[in-house]
Amino acid sequence: MAYMCSESPFSSSSSSSRHRWNYDVFLSFRGKDTRKNFTDHLYTALIQAGIHTFRDDNELPRGEEISPQLLKAIEGSRISIVVFSKHYASSRWCLDELVKILECRQKIDQVVLPIFYDTEPSDVRKQTGSYAKAFDEHEERFKEETEKVNKWRGALAEAGNLSGWGLNNEANG
């Protein structure tokens, strides 16, 4: 399924200067990897700084697609912070979020800030290491949906080329 980033009804162009933002920041992360440590600390710090931040606190049930509310939260955020962790690519929902985030980056100039948490940008960009293993499983599971898998690969390659922060071996985030 392709997700299209909506443009503001008040804008005739895709310029972010006319877009109405509902959130300052959207956090994209793999809950099992970082919810109880790094992402929790980051979210708390953003909120304490007065930054209106969206964090999905609900785990998505298996077999379900990203909710329309989550897609709207991505579209309505000025900045997306993507926390790439070892198992980020094993989640199809994280990958769908990333595709949507990068579409919004192109269409409404959303700022995307990657954080490479215990993973290397080159693993994200080239899908090596744990990312290669995740894609072996995706290619097996989504044999009939090669376009979807290729879209995920392209999104990771693009995001892995963005300037971001590397956090390795950080105690409790």
Automatic annotation (TrEMBL):
Q: Which domain of life is it from?
A: Eukaryota
Which keywords, in A-to-Z order, does the entry hold? NAD
Domain TIR: where? 21-173
Write down the species. Populus euphratica
**Originating gene:** LOC105118954
SMART domains given in the database record = TIR
Q: What's the protein name?
A: TMV resistance protein N-like
Q: Where is the signal peptide?
A: none
Recorded hits in PROSITE patterns, A to Z, give: TIR (PS50104)
Set out the biological process GO terms recorded for this chain's protein: signal transduction
User: Does the keyword field hold Disulfide bond?
Assistant: no
